[in-house]
Amino acid sequence: MNIRKALQISAILLLQSIANISYGDIAVIVNKQLGITQLTQIQVADIFLDKTNVFPNQAETLPIVVPPDSALYQEFIRRVVKRTPVQLDAYWARLIFTGKGSPPKTVDSSEEVLDYVIENENAIGYIDLQDVNDQVKVVFILQ
Amino acid sequence: MKPMPNAINADTRYQLSFTCCYQLLVVPIILAIILFPPNLYADNVDQLKSEVEILKTEIEKLKQKTERKTKSLSERVNNMREMYRIHGFITAAMATRDSEAVSAGISNESITTQADSILGLQLELDINRKARATIQLVSEGLKEHNTATEWAYITYDLNKRFDLRGGRIRQPLYMLSESLKVRYTYPWVRPPLEVYNLDSNNAELFDVIYRNNLGNNIQLKAQAYIGRIAGTQKILESTLDFASDNTFGFRLEASSSNLLYVMGVHRSKLSYDSDAFRAVDEQFLNLGIDTISAKKASAYYYNLGAMYNDGVYQVYAEAVKIGFDRSLLPRPYGGYISFARSYGAWQPFIVLGKANTPSDRFDSALNVIQQDAPLLAPLAERFFNSISSKQKTVSVGVRWDVMRGLAVKMQIDRSSGFGSTNGLNFTPLDEFGLPTGLRDDHIFNYSLSMDAVF
Q1: What CATH superfamily is the domain A24-142?
Q2: Do B319 and B219 fall within a single domain?
Q3: Least confident of B5-14, B191-200, B353-362, B438-447
Q4: What is this model's ipTM?
Q5: Which domain holds residue B19?
Q6: Which helix (H) or strand (E) segment is B60 a member of?
Q7: Among the four residues A28, A81, B112, B416, which has the most C-beta atoms within 10 Å?
Q8: Contact A7/B at CB under 8 A
Q9: pLDDT tens for each residue of B140-168
């Protein structure tokens, strides 16, 4: 019994450690010229769910995301948007087919997110915190 | 002994000729060195080197230029790709029931694959930064798979807060009216019939949509529209054409992270024509009671809805009511509440629905008929029952998200509480053109569907 329990605990700890390795802190980044310094988790979720198309300073939002099959995307929507990819698909389908919204533009990698945010004043994206450089501004950190 | 002069001379000549030849060779070499000094070669090498460097720079410039052009071309291609978007949805379904009465295209004659089958394609095209066109073509099994233009409108972004739209737009009578045909977007096989029983497509509308963030992450969306609706509604197994050139309405949506509230008020000057209704109407007018004709009658439609979705629990609640400013037309109301919970890819749900048509006006009319034309009373009563709907439905089912963009759903509905009405069912007509009536106390529907979006 003890061996079995020990194995279960080990497996859980292993999974947790893998999870901790796979997903570092996620940084929500914006262009340095954008006149905001901080966003709340709900504001971030609303922007990436197309519930709002303006930042708190009324500047238009230009969200950009990594591909849905990436670990970063799945971790972000699980923790920030609080949906599974499947639930999010149903959500986007409702918006797309009513012409009321569309999912954010998707690029292939975190590097492209970074480049896009650097190049576009109204862009907002998320990348691993360790990939952030001084050419962008971090407005929210998901720890 | 004296040396031989000839021999001396020969040596001397040899030496002299050698010296001369040597001088002949050396002199040009020296001259060459003088004329073409080694540092000149060095200059040429430097020159060549610098020319190579220039060429290298030129090549680098050309390379950068080509890269820029390729990037610009790639961006243009991407922009062109982003200019239009094509999406689609499909539902393949089968359903049956244990009653000969028909509801939502389902009967007990066979397992129908027509009732819920839908195929839709949507094209969105950005005309420019401010305007875009949306076209949605839908083919439904219930409508013999005739392809209809469900949407065809142009949206103009006036500013960050206002959008203007014009064209063929679905009248927003329900909380889910705009995504009604995209069955992947909700848990059930089909939306609850107690509310979703009017099909007012072919609406040519102009609307203005206002969006604002009210703070505390509450988003407000208001929509006001005006236009024309026309369509056909199957009543009493006959097709009823209706039209209104004067339709307008207002819809308000408030949403926060997990909640959505919707309310709407809609008004139409309605006209429709039917042989059955005209004949009955003539009789009623002769008796001096109110007309059942909806000719130029004002019809009101009210809807109220709420939705909660936290990623695990999903709750829908909605109520609708129809009213007329005059005439004896039915004034039904209906509502439902639905609970769903996600367990990974599985989402079991339960729906409780109710529809009712108040009978007070009909009762008053019947009193008049019973006094003035008692022979007509039974027929009139049957007529009033046929245009009334009383029904309660309990639905249970499960949605299984097989993979992203594909869901399989199973649903069982139990309807009862029909009273003297047909509920939301159709039965064959008798010799008076009136429904023969339901023979069941309760009816079970069994449905299985596969919904996909792409």
Answers
A1: Periplasmic binding protein-like II (3.40.190.10)
A2: yes
A3: B5-14
A4: 0.70
A5: 5-70
A6: helix B38-83
A7: A28
A8: no
A9: 888 788 888 888 999 999 987 899 999 99
